[in-house]
Every structure is written in structure tokens, then in C-alpha cells.
Description:
The structure holds two protein chains of two kinds. Chain A has two helices and five strands. Chain A is mainly beta. The model of chain A has no long low-confidence stretch (mean pLDDT 94). Chain B has a domain at 13-20 and 60-144: Thiol Ester Dehydrase, Chain A (Roll). Chain B is elongated. The two termini of chain B are 14 Å apart.
Amino acid sequence: MPEKKSVHLMEAGEELEPFEFLVTPELNQQYLYAEEDYHPRYLEKNESGPPLVHPALLLNMSNSTRSPSFYLAPGWAAIHAAEETEFLNPARVGKKLRVTWRIVETYEKRGKPWRVTEALVVDEDGVQILRRKLHSTYSSSESAK
Amino acid sequence: MTIITKETPVGQEFSGKPKKITWERLWTFSGGPFAASGWPKKNIHTDIDFAKNAGLPTACASGTQYQGYVIQLLIDLFGEEWLKNGKMNVKFIKLVPEGDTLIAKAKVQSKEEDGSAVKYTLDIWCENQNGDKVLVGTASGLVKK
């Protein structure tokens, strides 16, 4: 079995393992509670199809920590500092979504490693839902002292 | 129905509803699916000791949790169409501990003709009960002419 590579050491061009999940009504409603957003568009079907998936669910499920291969070496913490987000199409409850991640830029600032990761969410029909560029920095418990 | 129309002037400001970051909502957003064993999963967003071991002063909300508050405001302003063409760039500039109350805000920065639509660019931010900004950035959306 290959040794896991800590995400703070990954290089541009490397990818994390994709993540697939089904958006059930229960999972969607969990995020409606968390967000205090009970708009009918997220609960009821309409002429366009099943209820919409709450955007905050899409964001949280496409954080790179969701990847089965995400690994951070012991003593390190990731800080999600900024992002560029582009909504491409609404997602519908009942669809399976697939998230892919690719490191697109690496740099160091104030002695800390930074990684820019592009995330793409696509539904089971191949419809692109969401594109994000996540800017994250990493700190170790040693460097925090 | 949208709140921003092609007549909306530069400088106009909008606010969402105040939302309190409670433990229940932290766990619901960041603790994983309710159905998962051991819910809520311990991480820097859900567990004080876990956060302190990672070098943070206490458990803090995921930035995507309150990014969702801004998105809720943007969908109110531009309608569901925003999920097909909406863009946002954000920075998370201050930690948000349990007990904070946040409010999402937006202010029209500029508007320009964009084919058959008017493209609006907004300054967006989230501020806490002390008026301190915790998220800042810009967003854009289209309004049909």
C-alpha cells in the first residue's frame, strides 16, 4: 500500500481521490436546519423537478477534507482562508454527485505552505454544478507555539 | 421574484437575517450526516479539545457555514437563476466561535450592461454582533433587462 501524502506537501497537478454521494431529502434537510433556511425550493418539487440541493451542502461536501485520500500529517491543521466560487447549475435532491479535486498552485507565505485546490461538482448526468478554487494554508502545532 | 432589478442603484445595501451559531447548528453542519455512527464527528468545528490541540483558541464554525448565509442573501436578491450564473470571491478573516450571531450583508458596488442582462457586482460581507467582519468579498449576478 503506498504511503499517504500529507496534503500540505502535495504538488500542483496532483489530484485527490474523487468522492461520490447521494443527496437524500434527509441530508438536504440537515443543512436547512444548520443554515436556518427553510425555503420551499429546498423542500418541495416543482415543474422543473425534485427540490433543490441547498448550496451550503454543496460547499461543505466539496471541501477537500471529504476526499477519501485527504490526509494531513499528525500535528498539522488546515485553514480554509479564501475561495472563488462559481455556481453553474442547480443540483436536485435524489441525484448522486461526484466531487473531484486538483491542486493547481502551491506557494509559501510567512513561512507557511499554501495550496490552491480546484474542486468540481458534477451530477450523475454529467451536469456541472459548482466550481471552486480553495485557498488553504496549513500550520503545525509546533509552528503555532 | 428578485429584489435586485435593473433599476437598483449603485450604493444600495441589503441585509439577511441574524443567525446565531449554536452548538446544535455547528454539529449539524460540520459533524457529518446524522446517520453516521459516532455523530457528531469530532473536528475543529465541533469539539473544543480537538480545536485546541490543533492550535486554535476554541472550536470555530466552518467558513462554508456562514458563506451559506451570504448565498442565501444572494439568492434572495437575484433569484434561483443565481445558481446558474452566480460567482463569489470570499476571504475568511476572523474566527467565528459558538455563541456569535452573524448577519450577511451586501452593497451594490457597480452595474454594467452584459448582453441581454445587467451585471451587478456587490461587496459582500458577514459581520458578528460587535460589527466585526468575519467574511469579506465580492459577488456578481445577472438581472435580465
